[in-house]
Amino acid sequence: MNDLGQDLELRLVRYFTVVAAHRHFGRAAADLHVAQPALSRQIQRLEKYLGTRLLDRTPQGTRLTPAGQIFLPQAQALLQAARQAELAVREQARTERITIGYVEDLVITAAVRELRHRHPDAEIATRHLSCRDVGALSDKRVDALIARTPLPLAADNVSTTPLYEEPRMLVVPRGHPWADRASVTAEELAGEEAAPCAFETAGWTSYRILGAGVPPIESYEDKLELVASGRAIAVLPVGDRRSSLRPDLVTVPIEGAPPSQVVLVSRKGDPNPMIRYLLLAATVLAAPSS
User: Fold this and answer.
1) What is the pLDDT along the chain (290 residues), one digit of tens a residue?
2) Of 148, 110, 108, 138, whose CA–CA distance to 126 is shortest?
3) Which of the residues 54, 80, 107, 192 has an alpha carbon 20 to 30 A from that of 48?
4) Residues sharing a CB contact under 8 Å with residue 212, sequence separation 6 or more, in sequence order
5) What's the CA gap between 5 and 59, in Å, rounded?
6) Coil/strand/helix, residue 146
7) Where are the beta strands (DSSP E) in 203-283?
8) Residue 185 CB: number of other CB atoms within 10 A?
């Protein structure tokens, strides 16, 4: 008859397997760093719990009873399973950290908040990236990246998951012929010459500067200044609200332009489980209303 209200203790199971291995209480006690009488009492507790004798003392030491012979492989498997469970949990705890990169105007607060709510013990950091940080994912400064396509990353090296799409808009200076239009078409913009743009080449945002004779510009603010001066026009996703902070700029919807896509990108084959959890949490992100 076992101890009422008590569960099988793994410590007692381990004691039994050590005694069974040594076939001797004295040597087992030394191996376990416990007193031999205490070890004998613990084995008796285990036998009482199971309701049968597991070990018989002999002049030569100790031998397994038939019940002990049946219980030994099960006990060893139980301890192994417990060890594997412990290692899995420790590994999980060790890898529950992630650094999330995001670019330019994107706001990822909702996804990060949701991830922290679901995994309160995880180490979650964010890192704002510029066009100069094209190697942040590959050199492991970030574990995942939320950005707009196209990206300057080899498709064979990354896993990409679409999150949402945004329409595109035109940004022009006040007084521009299109400034008062309800919309413009992609065909109308097709005739504009694209100026060299370091940002677009880097691929971190889906916006481009249009206009002839404009040298490459890296700073976003300098590009807006170029638009405000009347030397260029810009195509941006509607979620990029930075141009609206300037009273000398006007945004106009574009009809027929392919949408800008926001994606979550990670290194292909990365075993970090937090990336999968981030993907689940990122479903709370939605395209800003136009």
Assistant:
1) 444 446 889 999 999 999 999 999 999 999 888 999 999 999 999 999 999 999 998 888 899 999 999 999 999 999 999 988 887 777 666 668 899 999 878 889 999 999 999 999 899 999 998 766 768 898 889 999 998 888 888 888 899 999 999 898 999 999 999 999 999 998 888 765 443 333 333 333 334 555 555 566 667 788 888 888 888 888 888 888 887 888 999 999 999 888 889 999 999 999 888 999 999 999 888 766 54
2) 108
3) 80
4) 193, 195
5) 36
6) strand
7) 208-210, 233-237, 249-255, 260-267
8) 12
Give, in degrees to the nearest 5, the angle at Cα 143 between 90 and 94.
10
Give the relative orientation of helices 36-50 and 10-22 as an angle to the nearest 10 degrees.
Answer: 110
Give the closest residue to 161 by CA, choosing from 283, 245, 254: 283
Residues in a beta bridge with 210: 194, 233
57: which 2 tokens? 């003392």
* Residue 254 three-state SS: strand
Token output for 164: 């949402």
> Beta strand 158-166 with 208-210: parallel, antiparallel or unpaired?
unpaired
Give phi and psi for 159, each to the nearest 5: -110, 130
H-run or E-run covering 124: strand 123-129
Structure tokens at 129: 């990236």
DSSP codes joined into one string, 80-111: HHHHHHHHHHHHHHHH-EEEEEEETT---HHH
Residue with tokens 């999980």, as numbered in its chain:
92
Tokens of 264: 């979550």
